[in-house]
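To: structure desk
From: M.T.
Subject: fold request, one chain
Message: Could you run this one when you get a chance? Sequence is below, nothing fancy, just the single chain.
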Amino acid sequence: MTVVALLAAAGAAKLARMDNASYLSALTRAATTFAAVITLAAVVASTLTTLLT
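Reply: Done. Structure tokens follow.
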């Protein structure tokens, strides 16, 4: 899941830079995306664990 989160963050940063955002803004968007994907993965894993046990 970490690889998926890193790829999503890299994509968000690339899109931000293509949108003429500064490097700091692009890094912020990448960090936010990374955190969101990791959080979503944790929620899905927790839900599946609850449903399957």
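Reply (cont.): Residues 2-52 form one domain. Let me know if you need anything else for the meeting.
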